Amino acid sequence: MCAKSKEPDGCCRDGALAALSVFDERTFTMTSHQILQRLPRGRTRHLPATVVLGLAVALALAACTTAPAGGTKSAGLATTSAPRPRSSSPTVPVATVPVATVPVATVPEPTAPSGRGVASTGWELTVYYTAVESFHSGARQNVTGCPNQNCAFGSTALGSYPQSFVGAVRTEGTGRITSGAQTGRYLNWSSNVGYWLDSIPANARGTALIPFVSAAADGGVLEQGSRFRLQAPLRQGGGQVDASFSSLLLGATWLIDDQFTPGLGGAGHLDLYIGEENQANFTSGPRYVAMQDSNIVRL
Questions:
Q1: N or C: which end of the chain has fewer CB within 10 A?
Q2: Is pTM beyond 0.85 here?
Q3: Cβ–Cβ under 8 Å, residues 124 and 296
């Protein structure tokens, strides 16, 4: 690590260049809901290469001016200790006395899908949707951000919208605008981009979400491109999900094409995209559900 100075010295410049030399747009993703269903999702979006490259340069050079004098070890480097020597003394058997065991209640963990056509149990299933401005009213809020996908945390004026609509966009990720100059377009939000305008309700890769197809998962839970179906019954709280809505969920073939900010979804959590809200106070209606101990079958 370079010593602290006002200007980048040779060591820092070399470090910045080294960081850029291994830059790979395909693998670089910036990362910055609801208790069961009411914490913000905080989705991440894959950024365009030009945005990521600019941020990488800024971060590499910023490190030069904040490093403590004398240097420090990199937190990302693994250390290896010498192997413990084997004992040269013979092993002496020790008599054991049986001890009675007391059963302890355990909470079942979801079983990971072990293959296509195999049921996996114990999943938490939630839903997310696209907010629609016309179902919201009240005080309006000015929104700034990016006029398109090709920037992050922009300062362009994107319009004025009801506060509840803006809040729903921040929670769910997407909202369709129904008034003003941007009518018909979408106000989108993600934790590593902020707000931006688009012609589609966008997923983490910048392509369109598809109702009753698109689903989100943490990385490592189900990989991108995985397809699955739900198994009956679908339960929420102490009862069943509305029968007509349950039929829609069970009849769909779901595709993992979206993602949470890493850590916000959880090992046993899948989020299902159900399209646009269809009423005011949508989160109090029969379609805004959180289902526990659910079964899925990977296709």
A1: C
A2: no
A3: no
pLDDT in tens, 36-66: 444 445 566 655 555 545 545 444 554 454 4
Q: Which two tokens stand for residue 3?
A: 């010593």
Write out the chain in H/E/C secondary structure. CCCCCCCCCHHHHHHHHHHHHCCCCCCCCCCCCCCCCCCCCCCCCCCCHHHHHHHHHHHHHHHHHHCCCCCCCCCCCCCCCCCCCCCCCCCCCCCCCCCCCCCCCCCCCCCCCCCCCCEEEEEEEEEEEEEEHHHCCCCEEEEEEECCCCCCCCCEEEEEEEHHHHHHHHHHCEEECCCHHHCCCEEEEECCCEEEEECCCECCCCCECCCCCEEECCCCCCCCCCEEEEECCCEECCEECCHHHHHHHHHCCEEEEECCCCCCCCCCEEEEEEEECCCCCHHHCCCCCEEEEEEEEEC
- pLDDT higher at 21 or 86: 21
Number of neighbours of residue 71 by Cβ within 10 angstroms = 11
- Where do the domains of the chain lie? 10-66
pLDDT digits (tens, 9 = 90+) for 231-285: 999 999 878 899 999 999 999 999 999 998 766 788 899 999 999 999 999 999 9
